[in-house]
Amino acid sequence: xxxxxxxxxxxxxxxxxxxxxxxxxxxxxxxxxxxxxxxxxxxxxxxxxxxxxxxxxxxxxxxxxxxxxxxxxxxxxxxxxxxxxxxxxxxxxxxxxxxxxxxxxxxxxxx
Length: 111
Known about the structure:
single chain
């Protein structure tokens, strides 16, 4: 089992490499996918930390998490971009988190 987790760790580090490649590419589409992935990955990790006592009693949790992470990260599915566009962006706009704010580099509005 430890070899499987080692393999999965290396696969996850490939997501970091793919993020760098996306930033350096001229296409904005892959940037959106990887930024959405890291936002959702962070949210899932924080949720998992808070709910750890409950998740310990769910033997299938790690299998579900693996399937969810694969769906989010694989470019064939573009799951992270789908979740972000369908749910997260809607909430951000509803509560006005983005509207009218300057970008981090101060050179314009966030779209």
